[in-house]
């Protein structure tokens, strides 16, 4: 167990803690609800495209978004990947104020509210973050697989993220993260 934070005495911090990831990609969504799984599919495709690169981590959050708490001490920045609300499915957006998920959400909360509440509780500097989303219509039935338009948008989003990471940098707050 690694203890980190500004108010933990030095003798309590374990010496064998791994270095924090420079960037953690976090896929959110339910792949059993069709297009709601867009964030998870983006994560899987990014993992395949980027590969095993030092300083890059990948995490899945299929349900309870408060699992983000466990990621915080081990990362310097976070990129959330998720399906977001939209009139037209397949639109790619990036930011912190994207339209919240449909209610009732499969996550039981929207990402921005969860991150805001965790930031107030976190003891230390909260890692900068951004949400990359693909718009979807509300899921109407259970079933795996993305619609063609959402699959296309997922592929475009992954290509753009990789291009930014390997080019001038992926903007996350005030950071530009490159690999």
Keywords:
Rossmann fold; two-stranded antiparallel sheet; 26% helix; disordered N terminus
How would you describe this protein?
It is a single chain. This protein has one domain: HybD-like (Rossmann fold, 3-Layer(aba) Sandwich). The protein contains 4 helices and 7 strands, in the order βαβαββαβαββ. It has a 5-stranded mixed β-sheet with strand order 2-1-3-5-4. Strands 6-7 form a two-stranded antiparallel sheet. The longest helix has 19 residues. The N terminus is likely disordered.
SSE topology sketch:
Elements: E1 23-28, H1 38-50, E2 56-61, H2 68-71, E3 78-85, E4 92-95, H3 111-121, E5 129-136, H4 148-166, E6 170-172, E7 175-177
Parallel strand pairs: 1-2, 1-3, 3-5
Antiparallel strand pairs: 4-5, 6-7
Helix pairs in contact: 1-4
**Low-confidence regions:** 3-14
* CA-atom Rg in angstroms: 16 Å
CATH architecture label name:
3-Layer(aba) Sandwich
Distance between the termini: 28 Å
Short structural description:
The protein is an alpha/beta fold. It contains 4 helices and 7 strands; from the N terminus they run E-H-E-H-E-E-H-E-H-E-E. A 5-stranded mixed β-sheet has the order 2-1-3-5-4.
